Amino acid sequence: MTRPSEDDLIARFFAPLATTAGADGLTDDAAVIPEGEGDLVVTKDMAIAGVHFFPDDPPGLIAAKALRVNLSDLAAKGAVPTGFLLGLGLPADWTTDFLAAFADGLATDIRGYGCPLLGGDTVKVPGPLTLSVTAFGRAARTVRRRGARPGDVLCVTGTIGDGALGLIARQAERAPAAAPDWLRLLAPDERSHLVDRYLSPRPRVALADAVGRHASAAMDVSDGLVGDLAKMMAASATGARLDAGAVPLSPAAARALAIDPGLRERILTGGDDYEILLACDAAAADVPLTVIGEVVESTDVVWTAEGRVLSFPSGRFEHF
Amino acid sequence: MTRPSEDDLIARFFAPLATTAGADGLTDDAAVIPEGEGDLVVTKDMAIAGVHFFPDDPPGLIAAKALRVNLSDLAAKGAVPTGFLLGLGLPADWTTDFLAAFADGLATDIRGYGCPLLGGDTVKVPGPLTLSVTAFGRAARTVRRRGARPGDVLCVTGTIGDGALGLIARQAERAPAAAPDWLRLLAPDERSHLVDRYLSPRPRVALADAVGRHASAAMDVSDGLVGDLAKMMAASATGARLDAGAVPLSPAAARALAIDPGLRERILTGGDDYEILLACDAAAADVPLTVIGEVVESTDVVWTAEGRVLSFPSGRFEHF
User: Fold this and answer.
1) Rounded to an integer, what is the distance from CA A57 to the centroid of its chain?
2) Fewest CB within 10 A of the end CB: N or C in chain A?
3) Could you tell me which CATH number the domain at A6-139 has?
4) pLDDT tens-digit profile of A186-238?
5) Which of A33, A126, A132 sits opposite B42 (nearest CB)?
6) Which residue in chain B has the smallest CA separation from A124?
């Protein structure tokens, strides 16, 4: 079967996604970033089949997640997305059906987040499908990891642990015999909620402005709340006191934890949350956030649950 | 052997390369692009071991070439580099020695081109070494592929064909028995010139301002002069008349062509040149460029040599 050349492939699948003048219809080797107000914030996250996603995940969701994890980084910095570049490394067995579904998934998010494709590069790889997204955003004030102050409260958006439990649920879809007991005891809609949150993160783009206005420090939770929070405290040269019982859980995650209390560590360290962790003045926390702790003068990070101190052997889930 | 974690690896090898405030010492998930005058131009080229370079190429040259091919794209748009992001996918067998040499090569170019590391992402890949560079530059006037006008002269910087012949010479270093006759007849310094030009492109950053001032259309020559020129003419809806005999060759390439006249097609279509092809008013061509042809009203591209019309079955070397 004859396959399209790189140029044909770009013209057919990706040029329609380049809806901004600076992209010049993807007919050039470079793009011009649209001008705008505020800091131009940039982030880059790679996603590799077999490491960050399953090769048989739906192509449109693979594409959307590769973009969304970058938009999550931007939102946590207070930046509203303005465009992105896509590096696409295609393995030998790619098909036009795959690319069509992949581009469809991107198109939906490009519209939904107002974040056009600006350019990129397409190559073949003698290895797994490789995605490298560079995303741009504008922030009236860029919020860093450093900046937390003693007395700040610590908050997270949304719920924590769904992505980590969803990964287990997604693995069980592919290898049902390996499903853990707690997963078998969940209702089908609870399992599908977890899988959906693993496959389709919800970057908190709508909160980017609020983060920029109110947060003294912020980052997105991608490698596990415990480890990411430790990084933020280290960058700020502060410590924290936290209540694991205050960490917000979805009904599905709460049910799983009730069935198997041993899941608490996985929920708090598993990652793939793509929620925003932020430190702010207590008075500013009147948004849909959950206070989970406070920043303290020492550089110790102390997690408690029901008044007892917790310890986590590893603060993060090691993708690397 | 214990290997450094992702965070340790970044702190040890890459944080020292992040010499600009916006990179925040690579301690955050995002960077702020430094403000500046003119268009902010961005380009992204991936490089995969076994496709774009040999896995046993010197690590410092692999790193430098991945950056330089992007700086070449910027220069051809009239943009002076201001910083870059590095996506690094490491295969299972990476070593700290490799990374140290890789970072050294980057450091030299960061200083030489004044182009600091702004951020990036490091992941493991169950496949070959994968590099994804996103480079930024500022252009007083961004020069596009489209824009060539009938009557413009067509020029290239430097010499053409060294990279394509250098690839053959590099292959022969790895498999001497396969060396073609013309290569055996070159002097050692001619062979090493070609290999060097293949491994170490010279992005024409110093000419970026001149391109911005004088070129009506420009692009870098990476996929072969014949095919790249055809793309520029197609984007401009113009044609061209060219003299293959006017295309500038290095002494080594000229000697190889004298030995084997059949190399002409490889020289003109082989790619890996990283020189700038540009169209400009004839009066502006008083810089170190070589006029190789002129833009015409029709959309035909006609190459001649010694007065006879040439045809090229394929206008580009297909990396893809």
Assistant:
1) 17
2) N
3) 3.30.1330.10
4) 999 999 999 999 999 999 999 999 999 999 999 999 999 999 999 999 999 99
5) A33
6) B320
- Which homologous superfamily is A153-310 in? PurM-like C-terminal domain (3.90.650.10)
Residue B34 sits at the vertex; the CA angle it makes with B30 and B36, to the nearest 5 degrees, is 150
CA end-to-end span of chain A, whole Å?
37
Instruction: Answer whether A141 touches B (CB < 8 Å).
Output: no
Whether residue A41 and residue B50 make contact (CB cut-off 8 A), yes or no, is no
Test A134 with B50 for CB contact under 8 angstroms: no
Residues of chain A neighbouring B43 (CB-CB closer than 8 A): 29-31, 119
| Residue A299 half-sphere exposure toward CB, CA atoms < 13 A | 7
The stretches in chain A having pLDDT less than 50 are: 1, 319-320
The rounded percent of chain B whose pLDDT value lies above 90 is 77
Instruction: State which fold the B153-309 domain adopts.
Output: Phosphoribosyl-aminoimidazole Synthetase; Chain A, domain 2 (3.90.650)
Which of B5, B44, B45, B124 would best serve as a mutation to test chain A binding (most A beta carbons within 10 A)? B44
Which residues of chain A have a CB within 8 Å of the CB of B7? 231
Q: Residue B191's closest CA among B251, B248, B258, B252?
A: B252
Q: Where are the alpha helices (DSSP H) in B77-146?
A: 96-113
What is the predicted ipTM?
0.83
Could you tell me where the beta strands, DSSP code E, fall in A125-255?
Answer: 130-139, 153-157, 215-221, 239-243
Q: Which amino acid is at A113?
A: Y
Tokens, residue A178: 């390996």
Q: Which of B5, B33, B42 is the best residue to mutate to test the A interface, defined by the most A CB atoms within 10 Å of its own CB? A: B42
The answer to whether B315 and B224 are in contact (CB under 8 A) is yes
| Cβ-nearest to A46 among B30, B119, B121 | B121
Task: Locate the domains of chain A by residue range.
Answer: 6-139, 153-310
**The two structure tokens encoding residue B24:** 């925040």
Q: Is the pTM of this model over 0.90?
A: no
Output the pLDDT for position B136. 96
On whether any CB of chain B is under 8 Å from the CB of A124, the answer is yes
Query: Assign residue A222 a region: left if phi > 0, alpha if psi is -120 to 50, beta otherwise?
Result: alpha
- List alpha helices for B77-147, DSSP H: 96-113
- Which residues of B, range 160-219, sit inside 8 Å of A by Cβ? 219
Q: Which amino acid is at A33?
A: I
Element (H, E) at A42: strand A39-48
Compare CB distances from B235 to A27, A132, A320 and report the shortest one's residue: A27
**Cα Dmax for chain B:** 65
Q: CB–CB of B30 and A41 under 8 A?
A: yes
Residue B38's identity, in one-letter code, is: G
Tokens of B107: 């450091």
Instruction: Name residues 253-282 of chain A within 8 A of B (Cβ).
Output: none
- Point out the residue among B30, B42, B220 whose CB comes nearest to the CB of A85: B42
Residue A255: C-alpha distances to residues A182, A186, A246, B35, B112 (Å): 9, 7, 16, 49, 58
